[in-house]
Amino acid sequence: MCDDRAVTSPTDPIAPSTTPRTIHADRAGGTLAVEWADGHATTFDLVALRWLCPCAYCRGEAGLPGWLDSDPTLTPEQTRLVDMQLVGNYAVAPTWGDGHATGFYTFGLLRHHCPCEACSRTRSASHDG
User: Fold this and answer.
1) Closest Cα partner for 45 from 81, 7, 86?
2) Which CATH number does the domain 6-128 belong to among 3.30.200.20, 3.30.2020.30, 3.90.700.10, 3.40.50.150?
3) Of these four, 27, 43, 53, 78, which has the most CB atoms within 10 Å of its CB?
């Protein structure tokens, strides 16, 4: 999937806000762009995407903190996208330059963490109230 071409995903009429219409991994540009079935567009910087890794090693498990909780300095290899695969109809799995490939980024997670101004405002307002 990570050949710098857009991939079209089947749409789910039940959850258009978390159903990607297209996913485009641009390694040279350092971004992952998702166009959602509801018309919204999300673009992640690959460094920010790496910080979102949801795997047990990065996020922790059994009440223990994960590696990313230690506030490491990410190297260029750790944020260099090597490949990205679809996982069923619910997630993408990136492979990073350091070989890390255990994080499945669900479409819900990606939409929830959309960095656009409108989504950031909505998240901020929901935490304030």
Assistant:
1) 81
2) 3.30.2020.30
3) 53
Question: Residue written as tokens 């300095």?
Answer: 73
pLDDT digits (tens, 9 = 90+) for 50-60: 999 999 999 99
Which pLDDT score, from 0 to 100, does residue 95 have?
A: 97
- CA-CA-CA-CA torsion for 51, 55, 43, 96, nearest 10 degrees? 80
The larger pLDDT score, comparing residue 10 to residue 97, is at 97
- Rounded to whole angstroms, the Cα distance separating 90 from 109 reads 10
Q: What share of the chain is helix, strand, coil (3-state, %, to 5)?
A: 30, 30, 40
> For residue 17, which amino acid is it?
S
